Amino acid sequence: MLSLRKRALIGGALTAVIVLAVGTYLLYSLMGTIALSRFDNTLKDRHTQLIIALNDAEGDPARLSENIFDPAFRTPFSGRYWQIIAPDGRVFTSNSMLSERLEVPSGIVEGALFRDAVEMRSEPVRTVHQSVRLSDGSTWGVTVAEARESLTIERAATRRSLLLAFALLALLVFAGAIVQTTAIMHPIDRLRKDVAGRWELEEGLNPEEYPEEVAPLVTDINDLLERNREIIGGARRQAADLAHALKTPSAILRNELTALAEQGLPVTASVDALDRVDAQLGRSLARMRAANSGASAKASTSLAASISRFSRLFGAMAARDGKVLETVCDKGFVVRIDTQDIEEVMGNLLDNALKWCRETVRLTLEPVKGGIMMSIEDDGPGIPEDGRREALSSGGRLDSSKPGTGLGLAIALDLLNAYGAELRLATSAGLGGLSAEVFIPNKLIRNQPDTPIALDAFQLVPAT
User: Fold this and answer.
1) Which residues of 411-436 are buried (b: 16+ CB within 10 A; e: fewer)?
2) What is the DSSP letter of 457?
3) Which residues pair with 422 in a beta bridge?
4) What is the model's pTM?
5) φ and ψ at residue 184, rounded to 5 degrees
6) How do residues 41-80 score in pLDDT, each as one tens digit?
7) Cα 202 to chain center, whole Å?
8) Considering just the CA atoms, what is the radius of gyration of the chain in Å?
9) Host H or E run for residue 441
C-alpha cells in the first residue's frame, strides 16, 4: 500500500497535470480565437478602406490606385489582394493578383462575410466579401483577401509561448505540491520520530505541539504507551518476584546436598540435576524478561560503563588463573537495550571464554556496516562449525569436562533476539579459538557515541 506521502504527491501531480492540460487547451483555444479575431479586424479595416476609396473614386475602379497607397497591393502575389465586381459584371483586381481571381459568393451579401479559401497559386487565404451600395445607387461586390501565413505564424508563436509558460507553471506547481506535501506530512513525520524515540522521553507526547487533526491520535498513543509501560513493568516485576521466590528453595536444597556430600553420601547426580533446574529456570526467567524488553521497553544502556565494569571484574578473575583479558575499544555507544539484559549477555559470553581459553580473551567493540559489533574471542579449542547450532540450543553441552549447564549461549541468544540483535559464532581470526559476535543494528543505537573509553584501564595482565 502506498504511503501517505506518495499518495499526496501522486494525487497532487495528477491533479496538476489535469488542470494544466485543460487550462492549456482552453487558453490555446481562446488565444487562437483572439488571434483570428485580430486578423479579421485588420482584414475588415482594409476592406473598409477599399470601400471608402471606391466611393471617393465615384465608382471608377481605375482611380482606386490614387487612394490606396499600400505597396503590398501592387506587388505580385504579396499575400494581400483586393477584387471589385462592378454592377455590369466587370472584375477589377489589385496588381498583386495579376490575372488571378478570387472566388466570391453569388448574389447580394448584405453584411461582411469572412471565409477561408485556397487561392493565389494554392496559397491559403482568408477573404471578406460584402455587397456595397454607392451614393449613386449602384451595387458593387467588394472583396479583400489576406494570406493566412501571418495568422499561422502568430498562432505558432502563441502556441510556443503558451507551452513554455505552462511548462514553467508545471514545474512551479509540482514544486509547490512537494512543498505542500512536505508541510502537511511534517507533523506525521515528527510524530513517527517522537514515537520511535519514546524511550528517551521522560514524559508522554504533548498533543498541543501537533495540529488539531493529529492531536487526538497523539492522545491515544500516549494512553497506549502508558498502558504498555504498565504491562511491561508488571511483567518484569512478576519475573523478578518469581526468581526471588525460587532462589530460597533452591538454596535450601543445595545446602542440604552439600551437607549430605560432607557425610560421604553420593549426591553428584542430584547436584547436577539441581544445577540444570536452576539453569532452566534462569533461562525461562530471562525469556520472560526479554519478552517484555526490546522496542517495547524504555531502556538505555551505556556500553562504555558496562564494558568498563565487566573488564575490571573478569580481568581480575582472569589474572587469578594466570590469564589475560584484553579490551580493544576506542569509544562506547549508548544502546536501546536494558542494562540487565546486555550485561547478562556479556557475562555469559565472558564466562564461557574464560572457562575455555588457554591464556587470552579479547573483548572488541567496533562500528561495522549497519551497526556495531561486540566480539568476545579466546584462544581455546573453539567449536566446530557443525556443532555451533547445538551449542546455541537449550542445554546443548558439547563437552562435559568443564562445569556448567551449557545454557549460557542459549540465554544470550534469547535476550538478543528479543531486541532484534544477533549472536553469531565463528572462529577467531586473531586468537584461533571461538569468536562470539554480538551484532547490534543501527535501530538500537543512539546517534551519538558516549564518552571514549580509556584503553589502558582495561589492558589487564596476569599477576606475577
Assistant:
1) bbbbbbebbebebebeebeebbbbbb
2) G
3) 439
4) 0.48
5) -70, -40
6) 988 998 888 888 888 777 677 677 667 778 888 888 888 8
7) 29
8) 48
9) strand 434-441
